[in-house]
Fold:
Amino acid sequence: MPRSSANLGFLWPVRPLLQRVTAAAQAGFKACEFHWPYDIPAAELKARCGDQGVKILGVNTPRGDVAKNDMGIAALAGREREFEEQFDRTLDYVVACGASAIHVMAGKVAPEDRNVAREVFLENLRYAVARARDTSVVCLLEPLNT
Structure:
């Protein structure tokens, strides 16, 4: 039998996030993932998911500057310190809510910046993996966007 999770960044978008958890459980999902749940305290998200019998699989790292259309910053040169701070907060949140994975969002880079971005991304991933090493959290990757 196939297993699937509810990506609550996409499903039931007109509902508040905690109501989406309930909707996922009512639809038969046993697991969910979130884009950016950070407006909800981790303990509250964990409690709702626990009450509904839904396991939290993954959470994305923050987008960065939404006004600048950022979709992650892990591969953006010059923003390494910002990435470290965001990752540390994400890891704390993920551990507190009981999720098992962090989707490390690389971000968008121009084609001519890909070589530099690849090196920045690798260095930031080294940081992330080292920070997550003593937890049960895994880091998930995405390809660089252009």
